[in-house]
């Protein structure tokens, strides 16, 4: 205790003596260093224009021929989808993974809406809800604490603009439509999809809502995740389902434009043999086929083909045969090429 007190006395004396000899230091460079440690968010910024919250996009004036060139899909197939979408106003493209459903739907939406129309893209998932899609209460910080205002979802926002521009087309593009709880997400929209002249009172805002005639729904679904037979029958009546199977024709068109460094016939025969074997499996079938888009890679050579097979095709097959790992041996790449 005595040693601690004696040390404190000596330390205080040393500080006092330095002030007498050198004078008390004034704030110098340390102030500059502290200024540099100021968080960037506090530093003054140039005035910026506020960004719009609305995520809608305008379409483009691409022709049907250009759309076909972008997707490598025959014009007649695209025209059929467009015709059904105009008539039904709600379409789902379904098929196994890798058939280009999302790519085609996105490009078709660009063409369908045109520069005067608009579209919004949403992705359904297990926790996506009516409150996300149509309207719902959302927490918001306020001076008094937390408020819960009614916030419009993408469907309601797009419908408001569509109502003010009835001559233009507005599309809600729904990717992975089968991954959500559709009855819960659509709610009273189930009625309005079939009867556009009906209006209903929304549960949160209390507003009367009617789905305009110029609002279209275009969805995509992976048939390997969920069969159409498992989709709610009421929803199946309100959507037109168009199959999107693997296409040797589409792959051939791509390989013709992007010549591979191996024989194109090897790639085409490989996809044909693979899907033939999958279809022959009682536990699988055509809903589990492998899509052509897996092989639509530029400068495709033996090394890249092996990489695609090892890291894309085999993991997918591993999911199909998760309880039969020995069955994967029949899908050896060299064996499949020789088949």
Outline the fold blueprint.
Blueprint: H1 2-22, H2 29-36, E1 57-58, H3 64-71, H4 75-88, E2 90-95, H5 101-113, E3 118-123, H6 130-133, E4 135-137, E5 140-142, E6 145-147, E7 150-152, H7 154-164, E8 170-175, H8 182-186, H9 189-194, E9 200-201, E10 208-209, E11 215-222, H10 233-238, E12 240-243, H11 248-257, H12 264-280, H13 302-320, H14 333-338
Parallel strand pairs: 2-11, 2-12, 3-8, 8-11
Antiparallel strand pairs: 1-3, 4-7, 5-6, 9-10
Indicate the proportion of strand residues: 5-15%
- Tell me the domain tally: 2
**Unreliable stretches, pLDDT < 50, 5 or more residues?**
1-54
Tell me the strand order in the biggest sheet. Answer: 1-3-8-11-2-12
Gap between N and C termini: 90 Å
Summarize the helix and strand pattern as letters. Answer: HHEHHEHEHEEEEHEHHEEEHEHHHH
Mean pLDDT: 84
Q: Measured on Cα atoms, how large is the radius of gyration?
A: 31 Å
For this structure, what is the CATH homologous superfamily of the largest domain? P-loop containing nucleotide triphosphate hydrolases
Q: Quick one: CATH class of the largest domain?
A: Alpha Beta
Let me know the largest β-sheet.
6 strands, mixed
Q: At the third CATH level, what is the topology name of the largest domain?
A: Rossmann fold
How would you sum up the global shape?
globular
Structural class by SSE content: alpha/beta
Separate helix tally: 14
Residue share in helices? 40-55%
CATH architecture of the largest domain: 3-Layer(aba) Sandwich
How many distinct beta strands?
12
């Amino acid at each position: 205790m005595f040693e601690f007190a004696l040390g404190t006395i000596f330390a205080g004396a040393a500080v006092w003596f330095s002030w007498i000899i050198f004078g008390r230091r004034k704030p110098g460079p340390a102030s500059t260093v502290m200024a540099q440690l100021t968080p960037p968010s506090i530093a003054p910024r140039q005035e910026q224009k506020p960004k719009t919250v609305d995520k809608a996009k305008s379409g483009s004036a691409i022709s049907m021929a250009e759309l076909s060139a972008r997707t490598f899909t025959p014009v007649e197939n695209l025209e059929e989808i467009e015709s059904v979408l105009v008539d039904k106003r709600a379409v789902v493209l379904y098929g196994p993974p890798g058939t280009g459903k999302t790519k085609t739907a996105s490009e078709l939406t660009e063409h369908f809406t045109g520069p005067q129309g608009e579209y919004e893209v949403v992705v359904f998932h297990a926790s996506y809800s009516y409150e996300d899609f149509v309207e719902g209460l959302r927490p918001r910080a306020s001076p008094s604490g937390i408020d819960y205002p009614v916030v419009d979802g993408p469907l309601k926002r797009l419908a408001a603009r569509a109502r003010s521009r009835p001559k233009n087309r507005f599309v809600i593009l729904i990717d992975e439509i089968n991954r959500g709880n559709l009855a819960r997400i659509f709610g009273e929209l189930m009625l309005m999809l079939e009867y556009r002249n009906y209006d209903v009172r929304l549960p949160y805002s209390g507003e009367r809502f009617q789905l305009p005639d110029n609002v279209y729904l275009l969805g995509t679904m992976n048939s390997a995740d969920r069969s159409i037979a498992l989709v709610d029958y009421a929803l199946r009546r309100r959507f037109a389902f168009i199959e999107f199977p693997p296409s040797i024709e589409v792959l051939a068109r791509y390989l013709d434009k992007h010549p591979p460094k191996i024989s194109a016939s090897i790639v085409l025969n490989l996809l044909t043999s693979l899907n033939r074997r999958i279809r022959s499996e009682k536990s699988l079938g055509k809903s589990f086929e492998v899509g052509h888009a897996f092989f639509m890679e530029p400068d495709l050579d033996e090394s890249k083909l092996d990489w695609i097979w090892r890291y894309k095709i085999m993991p997918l097959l591993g999911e199909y045969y998760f309880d039969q790992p020995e069955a994967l041996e029949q899908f050896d790449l060299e064996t499949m090429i020789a088949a």
